[in-house]
Write a structure and sequence with these properties.
By secondary structure, the chain is of the alpha/beta class. It has seven helices and 14 strands. Helix 1 runs parallel beside helix 3 and helix 1 runs parallel beside helix 7. It is globular and about 60 Å long. The relative contact order is 0.22.
Length: 319
């Protein structure tokens, strides 16, 4: 039986490891960080194809992921995945969203009196909320229940992994910059505030307007406010100026928010490149498969990309 070594235990690594295990492969994960210390754990984690290219592939992966979440995970309360009404707001009239076909329930256009001041249009849709504190341990448990093994250590380079297994799956996210020398990959810093819930029950965000990246995400036990997109910024320390801007934007897009109690400030680095990299190649006698560079859409693309990886591995090994 072919053993597959997966590098990375974020949402992409775990999702792909699970599907490979279910396909009958023996899978082992090698990772520097485990949940809750992964970049995935720092995400607000809603379904939305943000900072992911090319669009035609992102649309297909996002649609496949939405379907998997809806069919396999929403029905299971232990997963931490649920439907939530989401509204993206705009200062100017907009065409239909490019991602509309990925969402099975029709996208609505709220009336003008439902929008905050300064906004003229919006998309309201049945989105997906992924509570990372529940979901990431859920994925770990599911992988282990399938017989998967996890080793926590940092490797010196890709050659070390290729010497360890015939098939290596690289899901190392931003770590691929050093691991592969992929200088096209770069961080986009994101800062979020975790605050006590205030009774809001709808996600609201401004992706491109006067309060971009304003984001308000109600979760079970807290409320996530965001955010920022600072390209090529490796700083993971909280910035008080960013926090103040986040609060201002959140109140602008959700005036009913009111005063909040900040519980935590969270900073994560999104792994962005010109195109999400999902591909397989031979390195001598080894098979190397890449699955990284998902930008701000790691959860949104996770199951679709994982399905493609399983197909690539199966095709290569059965050729």
């Amino acid at each position: 039986m072919t053993e597959i070594l997966v590098l990375g235990a974020g949402v992409s690594g775990l999702s792909t490891a699970i599907l490979l295990s279910e396909a009958g492969y023996t899978v082992r994960i090698l990772t520097r960080d485990l949940p809750p210390e992964t970049t995935s754990n720092k995400a607000a984690a809603i379904w939305y194809p943000f900072l992911a290219q090319p669009r035609e592939k992102a649309l297909r992966w996002a649609a496949a992921s939405y379907a998997y979440f809806a069919e396999q995970l929403v029905p299971d309360p232990a997963s931490g995945v649920s439907y939530q009404t989401m509204m993206e707001i705009f200062a100017e009239p907009q065409p239909d969203p490019w991602w509309q076909s990925a969402v099975p329930v029709a996208v609505e256009r709220p009336a003008a009196d439902e929008l905050p001041a300064g906004y003229l249009d919006a998309y309201r849709f049945q989105g997906l909320l992924i509570e990372t504190d529940t979901y990431m341990p859920f994925l770990l448990d599911r992988f282990r229940a399938l017989g998967g093994q996890i080793e926590q250590r940092e490797i010196s380079g890709l050659d070390e992994a290729l010497e360890d297994a015939d098939v290596v799956l690289n899901c190392s996210g931003l770590g691929s910059r050093a691991l592969l020398g992929d200088e096209e990959l770069y961080p986009v810093r994101g800062q979020m505030l975790r605050v006590r819930p205030t009774g809001l029950c709808q996600t609201v965000f401004d992706d491109s307007g006067p309060n971009a990246l304003g984001l308000v995400v109600p979760r079970g036990g807290d409320l996530m406010l965001g955010g920022s997109t600072q390209a090529h910024d490796w700083n993971t320390a909280p910035d008080p100026a960013d926090s103040e801007t986040i609060l201002q934007r959140a109140r602008a897009i959700a005036p009913e928010l009111g005063e909040v109690e900040v519980l935590d400030t969270i900073v994560g680095l999104r792994p962005v490149r010109s195109q999400v990299r999902v591909e397989a190649k031979r390195v001598g006698e080894n098979l190397l498969v890449h699955n990284y560079g998902h930008g701000g859409a790691g959860f949104t693309l996770s199951w679709g990309c994982a399905q493609d990886v399983v197909a690539l591995v199966s095709e290569a090994l059965n050729a």
